[in-house]
Prior knowledge:
Maltoporin, Chain A; five-stranded mixed beta sheet; single chain
Amino acid sequence: xxxxxxxxxxxxxxxxxxxxxxxxxxxxxxxxxxxxxxxxxxxxxxxxxxxxxxxxxxxxxxxxxxxxxxxxxxxxxxxxxxxxxxxxxxxxxxxxxxxxxxxxxxxxxxxxxxxxxxxxxxxxxxxxxxxxxxxxxxxxxxxxxxxxxxxxxxxxxxxxxxxxxxxxxxxxxxxxxxxxxxxxxxxxxxxxxxxxxxxxxxxxxxxxxxxxxxxxxxxxxxxxxxxxxxxxxxxxxxxxxxxxxxxxxxxxxxxxxxxxxxxxxxxxxxxxxxxxxxxxxxxxxxxxxxxxxxxxxxxxxxxxxxxxxxxxxxxxxxxxxxxxxxxxxxxxxxxxxxxxxxxxxxxxxxxxxxxxxxxxxxxxxxxxxxxxxxxxxxxxxxxxxxxxxxxxxxxxxxxxxxxxxxxxxxxxxxxxxxxxxxxxxxxxxxxxxxxxxxxxxxxxxxxxxxxxxxxxxxxxxxxxxxxxxxxxxxxxxxxxxxxxxxxxxxxxxxxxxxxxxxxxxxxxxxxxxxxxxxxxxxxxxxxxxxxxxxxxxxxxxxxxxxxxxxxxxxxxxxxxxxxxxxxxxxxxxxxxxxxxxxxxxxxxxxxxxxxxxxxxxxxxxxxxxxxxxxxxxxxxxxxxxxxxxxxxxxxxxxxxxxxxxxxxxxxxxxxxxxxxxxxxxxxxxxxxxxxxxxxxxxxxxxxxxxxxxxxxxxxxxxxxxxxxxxxxxxxxxxxxxxxxxxxxxxxxxxxxxxxxxxxxxxxxxxxxxxxxxxxxxxxxxxxxxxxxxxxxxxxxxxxxxxxxxxxxxxxxxxxxxx
Length: 802
């Protein structure tokens, strides 16, 4: 056993635990911990890998300077190698003394070969540039996916690049992450209008969304076909549907970690496009050009997109909806990247997302706006196999909704998040640890159906530390992790162990497992019991919690436990099957109390008073619990011109508040997605794609009857025999009804014209709901009018790249 590598890992872990302890006990000593971490980084043992060398560096695309992610860098005729990460970084450690050939292979690029020599315990820094292949080899598909399947646990995670997003039918010729997320295993989408994503039994508030490490509070527009993210600026998106490890926290269901790419480091380039839904623009280029001589560089990237559907619908979609399609949005994102000669870099970024729905169905006006900015960095210290990453960011989100029959609703959230993480490489093993701090403020006001006002203004802070160790032993990959989360404003401490395991049974068959404990403070400002609700606000740290049955409330957090077991199998070289079964137990959930009638004050909360009422009639919030279980099966086939992706999900979701047990409105028993695309022509300039979605009906609460309610505004002097009341609904038991089955076919035809080496023109003709299925959206309980999801809608668009 080598003592120095063990000492280095132990020292890293000790430093982490000590730092977390002083933060929890005395948060003002945070800067002491940061200083101690940096000292450890630069003064840890340099000879930690005695007489064994290290080759580390970055792999870039020669044409643009963009990092090449998830490709293999290895020493020829050995089993020694590593895959690049989302930044193009690789670290090959524990290399015996000798002379080797360093190789990089990647689909669509010429193979790179470079002689290297290791003389003892030295660290070689390399910046490698891959050149696009001039020869298109038909029928060959070389990627790092198969290798990554064997070297990463990859339980309940899907890695998405723009290539995958563009392989499904795009509405208006705009490939969008929101459209791709809808076809992932375990993801339920509730509709084209106001739709949200529900991932394996979790509500949208339980999904953490990160953009370059910055928290995004609402990633989807009111028309559910589009997200706030421009596809062409995305480098990679990791979607964790459950069982994520210790580097992520603060949410109890899922994580979306989205990374944007840097701007072109070699030349000015961009893209402009327009279609019947909206327009988009992207511009990028170098501030200081990248060279292979080892100098630093800098670049920028800027994207803009907007919808003019409210205006274009009057011309193109007169027959779609007589009340109009009042969806409007504008998204702006910008980023500047500064790159050092050794691969270290700093990014500065900012965004502004705006969404408006004017007079929706003649019932409501709706508006939300989100903005923010920050910086992240990657530092590559000298002569040590370690990587340092960090982020500092601030974002805010505000939403307002005015309805004809209710008082306005309003919600605001704003806050910061910062993180510092260290990754230490030792052969195939890897240690990652760090800290995160998040502080935010929420402001919320809502009037329920009983005219009771629920209002809250709260400030909260979260501090956490985590450690994760990846250990490779034979056919086993084991990743234990531990996260310590401190909710300062709630005085709640949450220890959260995590574990991921993979066993490579055979070359083409693998078993994987993941489990963990998760917690969060945020809750949604709308109820899980609502079937249709565009309003999506935020609350934090609620104080006025009702008891669960007769039990006392021990803490104010929402908590969940995950257990996932899965299999991967590759029966053929181009076919991958993935089967996962999961169980999520939500031991405590917080929901808005729709039954509140009385204020929680004297005499209603005095048990000795004759006016005393139970908590479920006077508390602002109720405590619930529940679970979600299901099976997800996916099959992916990709060869030459043909791409097929199919998914089937079978799931159950349950909730109970101690008085009522119900299925939330997104409990869909069966969900099927079939996606295919095919390229035509000698130069593959034509592409046809189709997507079919089928889902069983969502639950909803039926209307039991109507009654007249007199508010007795004049007190005992009110003459109820002549007073005109207001009509009120009497609801049946919650969510006992089921909507009809949902299914829809979308299609797209794309033609590409190569104008020059760097320029191409792309035309798209598409349609959603091709056979015009009448999928119900909701039924107005007062008038009985049925409102359907979007009907057949064609779209046409173009994109010009230069």
